[in-house]
Amino acid sequence: MPSQPLDVQVLTLTENEDPYGLEADVLLLGGTSDDPGYRDRVAAELSAVLGVDAVRLLARREAGSDAGAFTSIDLDLPDRQALVWLGLGNGSSADLRAAGAAAARGVSRPALCLLTRGLEGDQLGAFTEGLLLGGYSFSLKSSTRQDDRRFTVLASDATGVAACERAVQLAEGVALARDLANAPSSLKSPEWFADRCLEVAEDARLRCRITTAAHLSRQGFGGILAVGGGSVRPPLLVQMGLSGPAKAPHVVLVGKGITYDSGGLSLKPVDSMAMMKTDMAGAAAVVGAMSIAGRRRPKVRVTALLPVAENMPSGTAYRPGDVVTQYGGATTEIVNTDAEGRIVLADALAFAVARLRPDIIVDIATLTGAATFGLSRNFGALYANDEQLAEELTQAGADSGDRLWRMPLERDYRAALDSPVADIRQSATGAIPGGGSIVAALFLQHFIGDTPWAHLDIAGPGRSEADRLEISAGATGFGVRVLTRWLDTFGDRR
User: Fold this and answer.
1) Cα–Cα dist 68/49, whole Å
2) Phi, psi (degrees; rounded to nearest 5) at 210
3) How far apart are CA 131 and CA 125, in angstroms?
4) Among this protein's residues, is 218 annotated catalytic?
5) Domain 7-174 adopts which CATH fold?
């Protein structure tokens, strides 16, 4: 993959070791807002060791404690090029992730992160996570230089080291999801995506099976075939599996995998197409989460279903007015070929209910622009038919940084999906202004039955126009962290 991960080294020092003796061009220090004296204490220590008046230098530059506040001072020393003071905010996980990301973007040379002295366990992990996520980059430039920066993070004990190791795992899963979604669609055919899934499965010791278009046809996956029918690159279904403990609950994760979305015959405007290579961000998030789960082995059985297709206009494309037979026999009247995500998800959901018999289903998709109307870019929309599941995912989102906001499955809107010619209409025809995300969720619910289910609409946070906090411009990898957190804690809550 074209991303360049930072080199982060985690060290533990004995009481007698001098941290200032470690090789680094930059000394990175920091403190939280609840300990305003920390800066001066550390600066005094530095002054004694390095022979510079660090107290005066930091005071003169008004180094602050807000999360990510960044103050750089040239030390003019032969073995130390710069001193950086980094604000850690209130010490929360969110502030520490933001601080780590600021460090990754602001420091261009090897750095010794002395700021982590005083941070323990999950706090240290959060900072390291932000450091790695903020340092993410993706490029296909012919002259791309390798990132040779090394950040040395100091841990006081094995607990801190373990937290950093988990942060590295998590960041690798997010980077994988970002890479998959950022890859241009000229490269990213359904077959290419399936090949990447096979590689991930082998590395993470997961089962993986690819169902080709011919087999989808024989098994009745009419939705996936309809959406992918306009492309010369045929659709497919990826199934990944993780075995869990005996009698462990079975969770199915479903991710929308539209490798490019032109809108089909309901063609998108040009300005809306540029980022449609990321319309498989839901599937990418599931792959990233599965790669982590394969290493951590949570106390749950997990199956991932990834319907993968390219939505293109052609003489073989599906049309508004068509009636599509979904997996299991339910029929859908097509209103808009640009509402293709719910059609492929419906096949996967129906298959999961009928053949896999899961205890819980969670699907994730860049499904509707309407989801951004009230939530914008910082929250994913959460829909659920089960209160406990909704609470678990909301908490996992708050803890992980992939924040979710619960939205209503408003039954009064369901009538907008009634069709005179099919079991259900694909989408409303303008009768519910602004309610497109809710209506899409109601459509998906039609294929769930009584199975506990949640739907995550990540059209807003799944992509970003600019770097912000630990998010990088382009595909954000949103969903990997919340799914991982939820799977990690699944056994503790049930």
Assistant:
1) 26
2) -110, 125
3) 10
4) no
5) Leucine Aminopeptidase, subunit E; domain 1 (3.40.220)
Q: Rounded to whole angstroms, what are the CA distances from 161 to 154, 155, 198, 247?
A: 9, 6, 31, 33
Q: What is the pLDDT of residues 126-159, one digit of tens each?
A: 999 999 999 998 988 887 666 677 888 888 888 9
> What is the band of 29 on the pLDDT scale with cuts at 50, 70, 90?
confident
Query: Is 126 within 8 Å of 97 (Cβ atoms)?
Result: yes
Domains 7-174 and 188-493 alike in fold: no
- pTM assigned to the model: 0.95
Domain ranges across the chain: 7-174, 188-493
How far is the C-alpha of 476 from the C-alpha of 463, rounded, in Å?
5
- Catalytic residue at 109? no
* Res 418: pLDDT: 95
- Active-site option among 268, 296, 299, 468: 268
Question: Which pair of structure tokens corresponds to residue 474?
Answer: 């382009």
Alpha carbons 162 and 197: distance in angstroms, whole number? 27
pLDDT higher than 60, residue 419: yes
State the DSSP H helix or E strand holding residue 454, giving kind and residue range, or none if neither.
Answer: strand 453-457
* pLDDT, tens digit (0-9, with 9 covering 90-100), for 336-365: 999 999 999 999 999 999 999 999 999 999
CATH homologous superfamily for the domain 188-493: Zn peptidases (3.40.630.10)
Tens digits of residue pLDDT in 41-53:
777 777 777 777 7
Active-site residue identified among 196, 342, 463, 485: 342
